[in-house]
Specification:
- The protein is an alpha/beta fold.
- It is built from 16 helices and 14 strands.
- It has an eight-stranded mixed beta sheet with strand order 3-2-1-4-5-6-7-8, sandwiched between helices. Strands 9, 10, 11, 12, 13 and 14 form a six-stranded antiparallel beta sheet that branches.
- Strand 2, helix 2 and strand 3 form a beta-alpha-beta unit.
- Helix 1 packs across helix 2, helix 9 packs across helix 10 and helix 12 crosses helix 13.
- It is globular.
- The mean pLDDT is 92.
């Protein structure tokens, strides 16, 4: 897959900050220009939320985080980027001016995307010297979690630019959809506008409150839309006869006077105040940042559920996540053998994420198992048991674990794990992992595990191939010279 090597983001607000986080967590360096005096703080808070969300979203090894640099000028920010994302306020004159300035300063081969939610790319590219490389890349908030990007070309946008933009999105976990003809507000916002207009009338006419309206969406069709969208949902509603029956049965309703979509509500001060007051009551004192974190946690849960849909193949955005994780695992595997394996192997370096802690700020029990599992996975990749190996039908399965909690890992704490192979034969791999506080070297926890090499298709233990065994035995022979770790072989309840 063609990848973005370096990105530039012009504008670091809600959408721009989301793009920055998406690029950084995909391992891409990002240069940012935003004259707002608090741009650094705002972007930093978005990145913090994104990191917390990713810690919950996937256990796959993310690449090293990209480097973030705030630049003093737009010219400096775009100079070396191959993908430039403009996310300035939604005013045609402002966006057109910024994009023309980007066009004059960017590399000849750089792609230029605009985050506009409704302006036509033909209007945006009017004054550019190289309009063929400008396209709309309209994302959805939060950009770092929601994967969709509407890709829309203008009259002068080249087909090669559209292809290049579409190709560069999957490696950062996003799905591009090419909108064939430019139209104001594109596709997603047109659908949202229709729902929004009807919703405003329902509030205006006191049919319901904003909370009731949101409940109607989130407890019913919102759940269906999350996985199947609109038309596939209605296909099912048509029963065994499918979509044609649904259209025949419910099509006549379109002529009924149910909707006010052709009538625009007057957003006067009274209606604005009504909506604002009801929205404040609905929020119940939660700040915007708190609501963002709740939103992210819920989205992660939905994405994880969809990842297991269709018998584990993934469904909708969950399938995209599954495919993205496959790429992460493939690129995170195949570590080189250490030059000196004669000491325990330091395999996992991480920090205790906000997603990992309980109400006391301590790392929860199952996260210890996750870190130790990640340590075993890193060891397996080291000996050649990577994604390709597993897909071919063989792997090591953990059949026994014994964890000791000897200290406390707390929010934000840097921790690392080390692995010692205690013994190994053709089928078995006996390991001992130790978790440390990176700053102090204090012992936090240990885990002793037994793994069996299996033929996953046959469902039974089998001997590992020589290529894997040679690597395992080389490390095991070196580790045989090490002292037996304190606690190895210990049973539950045994006195220290």
């Amino acid at each position: 897959m063609t990848k973005i090597s370096k990105a530039a983001c012009i504008g670091g607000g809600v959408i721009g900050g989301g793009w920055i986080a998406r690029f950084l967590l995909a391992g891409i360096d990002v240069d940012v220009f935003d004259p707002h005096p608090e741009a650094s703080r705002i972007v930093g808070e978005v990145i913090a939320n994104a990191e917390k969300a990713y810690a919950m979203l996937t256990g796959a090894p993310l690449p090293p985080r990209g480097r973030l640099r705030f630049c003093q000028t737009l010219v400096e920010a775009v100079a070396d980027a191959d993908w430039i994302q403009e996310s300035v306020p939604e005013r045609l004159d402002l966006k057109r001016g910024v994009l023309t300035e980007i066009d004059a300063a960017a590399r000849p081969d750089a792609l230029i995307g605009s985050s506009t939610s409704g302006l036509l790319p033909t209007d945006l590219q009017r004054d550019m010297r190289h309009p063929e490389r400008l396209f709309v890349a309209h994302p959805y908030n939060p950009v770092y979690l929601l994967p969709l990007v509407e890709i829309v070309g203008g009259e002068k946008t080249s087909a090669a630019t559209i292809r290049a933009a579409m190709e560069r999105l999957p490696p950062i976990g996003m799905k591009g959809v090419h909108i064939a003809k430019e139209i104001e507000a594109f596709v997603g916002d047109r659908l949202l506008e229709a729902l929004w207009r009807e919703a405003l009338w329902l509030i205006h006419d006191d049919i319901c409150t904003v909370e009731t309206l949101d409940d109607v969406i989130r407890y019913s069709f919102g759940l269906r839309w999350a996985q199947m969208g609109l038309f596939q949902t209605y296909r099912i509603a048509g029963g065994e006869a499918g979509m044609r029956h649904f259209l025949a049965q419910f099509g006549p309703c379109l002529a009924w006077p149910w909707t006010k979509l052709t009538d625009v509500v007057d957003l006067d001060e009274a209606l604005i105040e009504k909506i604002g007051r009801q929205s404040d009551e609905q929020a119940a004192g939660l700040s915007i940042r708190e609501l963002e974190r709740i939103r992210d946690e819920n989205l992660v849960g939905i994405l994880q559920a969809l990842k297991g849909g269709d018998g584990g193949k993934g469904w909708g955005a969950g399938k995209l996540l599954k495919d993205f994780e496959r790429t992460l695992w493939a690129e995170g595997g195949g570590e080189a053998m250490p030059a000196d394996p004669s000491r325990s192997l330091r395999l996992v370096e991480t920090k205790v994420s906000p997603a990992w802690v309980d109400y006391n700020g301590h790392m929860t029990e199952h996260r210890y198992l996750q870190v130790f599992g990640d340590t075993s996975d890193a060891l397996l990749r080291l000996v050649g048991v990577d994604l390709a190996y597993v897909e071919a039908g063989h792997s090591y399965y953990t059949v026994e674990s014994h964890i000791r909690h000897l200290g406390e890992a707390k929010l934000g704490q840097a921790i690392h794990s080390a692995c010692q192979i205690l013994s190994a034969d053709e089928k078995r791999l006996h390991v001992f992992h130790t978790l440390y506080d990176t700053a102090t070297g204090e012992l936090v926890a240990t885990a002793e595990q037994m793994l069996l090499h299996v033929d996953s298709k046959a469902g039974k233990a089998v001997a590992a191939p020589a290529a894997v065994l040679d690597r395992v035995k080389a490390i095991a022979a070196s580790h045989a010279e090490l002292a037996l770790p304190e606690g190895a072989g210990r049973h539950v309840g045994q006195r220290r």
